[in-house]
């Protein structure tokens, strides 16, 4: 009859477990950071997150294709296959056997797991190279009009002057070499250098995203140059605003001084016979440099000033050598920024500051966490989060899909106490890995 009044025991924990306060099932956690966690391989059947495929079995790839969950993201491969077939079809040389052998050879590289891990992410890059060099065979009668006055007019409207003509008005051999380093060397060698650093020192799965982003940026740039051809500054210097026509040779512009300085023919012939001589907008030199800087800053943020300096250096070089207007540089950098934003929010793995190379990663988290509506208004449970002033961000781990609803304590750790992977982490890793097939 006489019950004691219930007491409420309040104790502020040292560390709030956000996963226990707000458990979210996997079917409702679409906006959270997607994870691909793997342990330090106690079970030989489990592959480490940084391990590479060594199998050449085509049957294994066929089985993975059967289990793959197809999505709209996979339409990119249909587009790449269409561009490859189109490029092979328009090539002037009538060699059906060679073209068929080339297509089957690349298909074989995509079906073997050991080679697929390199040639599938880099497929957009190879497609871009084939697409670019075969575009010279597009018939003249189907090519669009070449715009001569659009870019100079935009240059004067936006900046009040032709910045390229101003920067190239005074030349010097020292300035020529200083401009040649990023434009003539860095543009061609930097993708391989960045890929090496990202593969060795960034989080696993970062390099495939970088390769796809770089390839699609190049494909978009070539497509825009073919659909909307515009003359660069060197054309205005040579012909003024006279109408241009297809079949006119390109020009090395300021790079001709480099050939004369070193007594070699590195650029004169190649630029004079370029497949796309009137591809001024957008500037792939600026777009590639911006994309490299964004990815490298994301992976190695302490070197951000150097990456920013390189982009500015290349911007100056392109205008000094009379290859691009300033509006071309802005267009290329904007496209690169949009591609990087999509890659960072959806596909890039989260970098862990305490890791120095790819082999130190036990798990990776894919993409960024989306805030709920109440968090956007300032009423979410994120207000109870204990912010740390150090480099380690515990919330970045606890807010991902590494949360296991079957764990009584609501632990957000990707590994259990014995170092093995939990069931939910394993399923999350499998779903994330299928995204990169």
Automatic annotation (TrEMBL):
Pfam families: PAP2_3. GO terms for cellular component: inositol phosphoceramide synthase complex; membrane. Residues 397-414, 428-437 have a biased composition (Polar residues). The keyword Cell membrane does not apply. CDD domains: PAP2_Aur1_like. Residues 389-437 are annotated as: Disordered. SUPFAM superfamilies: Acid phosphatase/Vanadium-dependent haloperoxidase (SSF48317). One of its GO terms (biological process) is mannosyl diphosphorylinositol ceramide metabolic process. The chain crosses the membrane at residues 75-91, 103-126, 180-202, 214-235, 329-348. The keyword Transmembrane helix applies. It is a multi-pass membrane protein. Residues 207-344 form the Phosphatidic acid phosphatase type 2/haloperoxidase domain. Keywords: Membrane, Transmembrane, Transmembrane helix. It is found in: Membrane. PANTHER family: INOSITOL PHOSPHORYLCERAMIDE SYNTHASE CATALYTIC SUBUNIT AUR1, PTHR31310. This is Phosphatidic acid phosphatase type 2/haloperoxidase domain-containing protein. It comes from Neoarthrinium moseri.
């Amino acid at each position: 009859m006489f019950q004691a009044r219930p007491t409420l025991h309040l104790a502020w924990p040292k560390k709030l477990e956000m996963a226990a306060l707000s458990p979210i099932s996997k079917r409702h956690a679409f906006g959270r950071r997607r994870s691909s966690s793997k342990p330090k391989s106690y079970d030989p059947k489990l592959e480490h997150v940084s391990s590479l495929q060594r199998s050449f079995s085509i049957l294994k790839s066929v089985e993975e294709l059967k289990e793959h969950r197809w999505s709209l993201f996979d339409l990119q491969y249909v587009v790449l296959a269409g561009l490859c077939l189109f490029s092979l079809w328009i090539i002037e040389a009538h060699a059906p056997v060679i073209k068929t052998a080339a297509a089957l050879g690349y298909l074989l590289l995509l079906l073997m797991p050991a080679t697929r891990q390199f040639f599938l992410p880099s497929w957009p890059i190879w497609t871009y190279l084939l697409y670019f060099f075969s575009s010279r065979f597009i018939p003249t009668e189907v090519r669009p009009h070449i715009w001569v006055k659009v870019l100079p007019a935009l240059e004067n409207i936006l900046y009040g002057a032709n910045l390229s003509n101003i920067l190239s008005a005074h030349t010097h051999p020292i300035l020529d070499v200083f401009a040649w380093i990023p434009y003539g060397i860095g543009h061609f060698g930097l993708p391989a250098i960045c890929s090496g650093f990202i593969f060795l020192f960034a989080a696993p799965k970062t390099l495939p995203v970088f390769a796809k982003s770089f390839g699609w940026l190049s494909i978009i740039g070539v497509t825009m140059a073919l659909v909307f051809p515009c003359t660069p500054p060197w054309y205005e210097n040579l012909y003024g605003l006279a109408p241009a026509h297809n079949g006119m040779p390109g020009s090395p512009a300021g790079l001709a001084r480099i050939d004369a300085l070193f007594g070699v023919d590195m650029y004169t012939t190649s630029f004079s016979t370029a497949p796309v001589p009137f591809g001024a907008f957008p500037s792939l030199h600026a777009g590639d440099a911006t994309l490299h800087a964004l990815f490298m800053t994301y992976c190695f943020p302490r070197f951000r000033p150097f990456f920013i300096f390189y982009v500015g250096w290349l911007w100056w070089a392109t205008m000094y050598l009379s290859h691009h207007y300033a509006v071309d540089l802005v267009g290329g950098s904007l496209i690169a920024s949009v591609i990087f934003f999509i890659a960072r929010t959806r596909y890039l793995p989260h970098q862990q500051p305490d890791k120095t190379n790819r082999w130190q990663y036990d798990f990776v988290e894919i993409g960024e966490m989306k805030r709920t509506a109440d968090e956007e208004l300032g009423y979410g449970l994120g207000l109870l989060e204990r912010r740390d002033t150090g480099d380690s961000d515990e919330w970045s781990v606890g807010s991902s899909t590494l949360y296991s609803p079957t764990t009584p304590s609501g632990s957000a750790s990707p590994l259990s106490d014995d170092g093995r992977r939990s069931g939910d982490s394993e399923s999350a890793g499998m779903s994330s890995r299928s995204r990169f097939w």
